[in-house]
Amino acid sequence: MLRLPALAALLTFGLAFASAPVLPPLPVLVPSVPTETVPPTPAAGLRGLWLDGFGPGLMTRAQATRAVNDAAALGVNTLFVQSIRRADCLCLRASVPPVGGLEPGFDPLETVIQLAHARHMRVIGWISVTGAWNSSVPSRRTEQVFQQHGPDAGLNSWLARRPDGSWKSGADAWLDPGIPAAADFMAGSALSLVTHYDLDGLQLDRIRYPDGGDWGYSPVTLARYRLETGARGVPAATDERWRSWKRAQVTALTRRIALEARGARPGILISAATIVYGDGPTDLNGFHATRSYAEVLQDWPAWMAEGLLDLNVMMNYKRDGVGDQAAWFDHWNTFAASLQRPGAAVAAGTAMYLNSPAVTAAQAGRATALGLGWVGYAYRTPTAAVYAASQTQPQGFAAVQAALQSQDGSPLPAPLAWSPPSVLRRAVLGRVVGLSQPGGVPVEVYAPDGQLLGRTTTDGNGYYGFADLNGERAEVRVGDQRWTESLQAGLTRFPNLLLRQVTRVND
């Protein structure tokens, strides 16, 4: 347990969020703040398609135009467009460099937004939050994060590592959410999309640790963990205290991005592409035994309950006809449907690339029958035959379109527009500054009548936040320090709390 004794502290308005990138928003692109609660629309109205940037499809204007036209013909109303891929972007105005191989002067994200909005489709910027590099298609730009903070950068390396110091997960390098500078970089990258593009939403992918469960052993991450918990030595991968601490870092990064994005663009939809390996649970206790929670450290039911996600798109990549996978698919959908509430919708993302068109249509139908939305992965590989290179992409896409639109009651076409569930949120974002190690500081928020509204801890950069508070005023407490602020609709930034000293006492 951490105690904060009464020590000299100052509340200051002048201290800016110094470590966060300063990216001025474009006011003409920001919608007005909602003034009232909007009745929720069933998530089943969502029909989506992922447009990935791992191959042809978004690299030229002709490809992007064809992709949007094909999506419109299919009947989808929401495009999840890969934007930040591996700390590079299929765009020109983000804080990370553009991907290699783009048509000169061409901005894929801007073009898709313009074309899709003209057809009344929503555009969600899909980002790989922790993606850093891939050895098969390495970025060699000197400004790319891997070149600056890769495996040979010593304590300035931001990569997730195993206990033996290795950093590759297959061909990929991942950034570690437990490293404060890396978390700041990831939050700033996401914010740069929100402030520079007219996006309807942001989707957080790879907002987790890599598969395997034995990650997070960067010297910087381990030093933070020991300081904040009093633990000694190197924790085992199965140490639940260690896993819980790392899980909290993933959630803190999710919270920071969600709140910063909502502050920059009120009304933006926050989504995550979430992990649903294996069979689905029947309740939250069962979820805590899944690989989602125990291995990759992604607690997405808690994110939904806290109000961090407006839309959870499960990557429910199962193959009907292979073992019990059809039942696994349905079990995950049933579990997630039980968690839906106003402002927290769920969609089933299905693996078109692993299935036949008939199975894709059947899975989409079963998901939407439960009141979930549907999102297909992916436009570039719409069938198992295309993925196996035994069918061309146009042939496969036409086959999927025929299957989805072949009979009455089929999942597509959907209504032209989908209005996501929307609620009026009052959120708080603040920061504790002045400490050399500001992470892990307990923060509480109270209503004016003294009712405890929420409890959290600061992240490695000192940020804390509350996504969905009741009432029009709130008091934040850190130790015996208190600050009360009126809450506006949307995000209220509290002044920085400057602590001169914090003594941690471990029980």
UniProtKB/TrEMBL annotation:
Residues 46-331 form the Glycosyl hydrolase-like domain. One of its GO terms (molecular function) is hydrolase activity. It holds the Pfam family GHL10. Keywords: Hydrolase, Signal. Residues 1-18 form the signal peptide. Gene3D superfamilies: Glycosidases (3.20.20.80), Immunoglobulins (2.60.40.10). InterPro entries: Divisome_Glycosyl_Hydrolase, GH, GHL10, Ig-like_fold. PANTHER family: GLYCOSYL HYDROLASE DIGH (PTHR43405:SF1). This is Glycoside hydrolase family 10 protein.
